[in-house]
Structure formats: structure tokens, C-alpha cells
Amino acid sequence: MTRKAVITGIGVVAPGGADRESFWDLLVAGRTATRAITLFDPAGHRSRIAAEVDFDPVAAGLTSRQVRRMDRAAQFAVVSAREAVADSGFDMSTVDPARISVALGSAVGCTSGLEQEYEVLSDDGRQWLVDHSYGVPHLYGFMAPSTLAVEVARDVAAEGPVVLVSTGCTSGLDAIGHAARLIEEGTAEVAVTGATDAPVSPIALACFDAIKATSPNNDDPEHASRPFDVRRDGFVLGEGAAMLVLEEKAAARRRGARIYAEVSGFASRSNAFHMTGLRPDGREMAEAIGAALAMARRDPTGVDYVNAHGSGTRQNDRHETAAFKRSLGPHAYRVPVSSIKSMIGHSLGAIGSIEVAACALALDRQVVPPTANLAERDPECDLDYVPVTARRRRMDAVLCVGSGFGGFQSAMVLTKG
Fold first, then answer.
1. Are residues 189 and 324 in the same domain?
2. Alpha carbon of 415 to those of 6, 38, 65, 66, 228: distances in Å?
3. 313 φ, ψ (degrees, to nearest 5)
């Protein structure tokens, strides 16, 4: 029997929606969660806007000790994992812990915690030689991104394969792809998987300022994230997490689980070209899409919706428009394409898992989320980008893609379970 991985639980902590249903409501309403930064004083930065999560860790169920120990990204991951497990109805206590896996993605690890601790140890940067005695006892955990996966594993009592995938902005897609493979090969009976990042911090903002990748539209943050629009001027930094519960399809059906979607195909490629640059023809992304469709045994014409990377940079939007035309052929002009980054910003490694969660919900509810703020389409981006308003549509298969610094290109096909 061929084993297939299906999504039976979804948990989300995202800007404008700190749980699954609030997140979905924001998407279908086409609301934006981008605003002036409140987590710190952004004065002096080129871009002073972000999509922040309104998040109270204690109200979300974490103890004061957990809050003290965990970086903000870890908090997001644990809270969204709990929601996903509860949503799935899967009783983890009935499974051998060695058969429970965690695969978590993150691009920048514990950025917030590390930066806060450096400020303390260096006396706000005044001391070149830092005094380690002022560091918190769990400082080492901030240095090792794998502790993010460990926190989730501890919370769900997972003793099977536990991994941290860090492949830049495709980390979320890649972690879910890895977890699906563990289910398919029989290594795990259940996997808790997704990604988390909390990069809204001075150091991250400064890094993107330096390469002018983020939008400087500080006077109108609500409309600053404008994928595929002729007036776009960069992406808006975001934060958040999404976690999924994956199970083997037949087993999920036997227990009467609600199946959101099947992970039918996944593939990744690298352009081996440039750290931040993209080839204009979109060949590597197109190859990843083709491989994912082949794994899913789907013809390009069978794709009913494409969730684009859609970061809102001219380079990326044109690159993936070319990739869709190259991989889907004439069907690229018929299939709806949208970017939810227009509403929740770009949360780096976390965004891929948040987008997969959105795709699974779109399949389940038969609604295509819109691209907010798309008022005047770039003539070079001439596909159906679902501007402003969500669209009801019959869907059996959706394609979710990601593109990351380092040349990473990933594609995932979800089908109705």
C-alpha cells in the first residue's frame, strides 16, 4: 500500500490573526496587518513598518517560566503546535513517542532573544568585550536554532525524528516536505511540522535596509505590501508561525479525522547563481513546480490555484511570473494566483508554512484569498492575481511556491483528501 501524508490539524499565529480562524477571516476579508513598528523604536531605519503579531504568551497558555525560557519565535511555534494538535483531535498519548516526529523550519532562529541578550551583555553596545555573567541561563538555547524544534518536541512528547530545517525563506515549505516524506516512508506515524520566525528586530531591519529590499513606504504602511503592483517598492517584514499535524491518509480515515488536504507533491531546486539575485526566466522555480506536479501525478492544467511567493520586489514578482508561464504553459493565464504577503507581510522562514496553512484552508473552504493592495498591475506581471477581493472557486489541487535567498526554490502540491 502506498502511504500518503495528509493534513489533519492546523494552528496559526500570524499578524492580524493569532489563531487559525482569525487568520482565515483576515485573508478572506482582504485586510492588511502591516503597520508602523511598535515592538521597538525604529527611528533611524529606512523601513519603519512591519506586520507584527499582537501576542500575549501568557494569555495564549504559556507559563511564566516558559515565557522566560523561550525566544518569541519558540513561543509562536509552541502555541500554534498546540492549536494544530487540538484541531486534529489526535491523542498523542496513544502513540509510541518514538513514532512522533517534529520538523520545524526557521530562517533566522532566535533573533529577538539573541539581540536582547547582546544589548544587556554589551551594555547597549558600549562594551566591545561582553560580560557573560549578565547572560540568562538559557542563552545557549538562543544560539542554537535547533532548540526551537526541541521546544515543540518537548511540548508534544515527540521522541522520533526531530529536525530544524533552515533554508532561508523556503524553510517552512521544506520542513513540511520533509515531514511528509517521514510519513510516506513509515518512519513516523504522526508529524507536527511547520515553521516559525520572529525577525521584527533592529538587526534584521538594518540588514534588509542595507540592500533596500524592504518597502520605505512608512507614511502608508497599510498599503505598503503591494505584490505585482506597478508601484511596489519592496517587501514588508513580518513574523509568525504555522504548524500542521500530518498523518498517514488511511489511518486518518480510520479514526474519522477531518482531512484538510493531502500533501501530494513536493520538490526543491537551487539556482546556484547569486545569494540574493534571481534569473529572470524563472527556470529553477519552474523545474521545482514540474517535479512537484510529477510527484503528485498532476497535469499543469489540473492546478486550480497558485499561492505565489509574491514578496513585492520587482525581481521576485517578475521571476515567478516567468516561472508560472514556463511550468504551467497556457494554463498560467487561466489559473488564479495570489499573494497573502500583501496582508501579513513576509515572515522569512515562517511564511512558507503560513502559506501552506492558507492553501489547506482554501481547499477546505473553496475560497481563493486575494492579493490586497493590487490597484495597477505591472505590465510584466500579466496573470490573474486575484486583486483585492477573495474569490469562490471549485478547487481540487493548489500549488504553493517559495523563493529564498541563496537560490532556494520550492514547490508543493496540495490536493483534496
1. no
2. 9, 39, 41, 37, 26
3. -100, 145
- Please check whether residue 197 lies inside any domain of the structure: yes
pTM of the complete model? 0.97
Catalytic, 346? Answer: yes
Cross-strand bridge partners of residue 390? none
Which domain, by its residues, includes 369?
A: 265-415
Q: Which of 45, 110, 169, 381 is catalytic?
A: 169
Please pick, among 45, 110, 178, 309, the residue that the annotation labels catalytic: 309
Indicate whether 249 and 273 sit together in one domain: no
- Nearest Cα to Cα of residue 226 among 313, 307, 354, 322: 313
**CA 64 distance to own-chain centroid:** 27
**Cα–Cα distance between 409 and 288 in angstroms, integer?**
7
Count of domains observed in the chain:
2
Q: What is the pLDDT of residues 1-22, one digit of tens each?
A: 689 999 999 999 999 989 999 9
Tens-place pLDDT, residues 230-249: 999 999 999 999 999 999 99
CA distances from 94 to 7, 97, 210, 324, 343 (A): 19, 9, 51, 43, 39
Q: Kindly state the percentage of the chain with pLDDT values over 70.
A: 100
Of 346, 359, 381, 400, the catalytic one is 346
